[in-house]
Amino acid sequence: MPTKAQNDRVLMLEGVHNFRDYGGYRIAGGGRLRRGWLWRSGQHYGATDADLVAIDALGITAVFDLRTDDERAHHPCRRPAEFSATINYADSPDRGNAPHLVAARSVPKRTPEATRAMLRKTYETIAFRPELQAAIKGYLAELTEGRGPSLINCMAGKDRTGIAVAMLHLATGVHRDDIMADYLLTKTAGDPEARILSGLEIIRQKACEIDEASARTLMDVDADYLETALAAIEDRYGTTDAFLEEAFGLDDPKRERLRDALVES
User: Fold this and answer.
1) What structural domains does the chain harbor?
2) Do β-strands 86-89 and 62-65 pair in parallel, antiparallel, or remain unpaired?
3) Pairing verdict, β 32-33 and 20-21
4) Fewer Cβ close by (within 10 Å): the C or N end of the chain?
5) 201 or 18, which is more confident
6) Side-chain-facing half-sphere of 161: CA atoms under 13 Å
């Protein structure tokens, strides 16, 4: 049966990987993000019946699925029978591919080192993908309403989801060290080996033949990736605050509303 573990942050499910609460972090100025209100995960295609019972018990009111139309068509998420949450889907990118598939197909000579370099290159532009920005903007707007617990997911719950979560953390005033720690929790959350093998199967189906070492690199997270994305934002916009306002409309009053909805003492 699914259980909570790892400091009560990770929900240990059987067929859904990287499912965890990204609330609870301290906020600059006082308070913490609410627990049990902000959930992130990989896709729910492999959810077991026991997983669905555990997910249903969370009381989720809104889901934001960041995967492409093609990803959802080939790996539709399972939902609880009486699941009443609003399901929001990201638009598919013009180039049609998810970031991990772009990275997999762009490596001329597939080695772990080349794959790592391509992932770093992917993170230089991931925050500027129009379809991801639009989805994150809608996600942040929903969270501002404070209607209830939410879930955001992509295929593995690490790249697109990682950027979305980092934006929420930045907008509410979570410390950079905690933002990075949450991002890197993918390495140990749940059953990392099962997550990697599931991703390996999908990558081989959709991208091309890839050796296991390179695929494992593709399914990993590294501090350098998120640091690269944040550096690219600051290089283009000057500050992350400027980016949050221009890309997502988060001026000071809207950020305060977001904090009002999500921060507890």
Assistant:
1) 3-260 (3.90.190.10)
2) parallel
3) unpaired
4) C
5) 18
6) 32
The model's pLDDT over 221-250, given as tens digits with 9 standing for 90+, comes to: 999 999 999 999 999 999 999 999 999 999
83 phi-psi bin (left φ>0, alpha ψ -120 to 50, beta other): beta
Q: Comparing C-alpha atoms, which of 62, 15, 24, 23 is closest to residue 42?
A: 15
Helix (H, G, I), strand (E, B) or coil at 185: helix
Beta strands in 42-171 (DSSP E): 62-65, 86-89, 150-153
| Residue type for position 232 | A
pLDDT of residue 205: 78
Task: Please give the distance of CA 159 from its chain centroid, rounded to a whole number.
Answer: 6
Q: How far apart are CA 205 and CA 162, in angstroms?
A: 23
Please report which helix (H) or strand (E) contains residue 77, including its range.
none
Nearest to 68 by CA among 38, 95, 34, 28: 95
Residue 181 near residue 221 (C-beta atoms within 8 A)? no
Six-digit token pair at 13? 């499910």
Residue 3: the pLDDT is: 45
Mean pLDDT for the stretch of residues 22-37: 97
User: Could you tell me which residues come within 8 angstroms of residue 216 by beta carbon, excluding any fewer than 6 positions away?
Assistant: 112, 196, 200
| Residue 232, burial from CB neighbour count under 10 angstroms (0-12, 13-18, 19+) | middle
Nearest to 183, CA basis, from 161, 198, 199, 200: 161
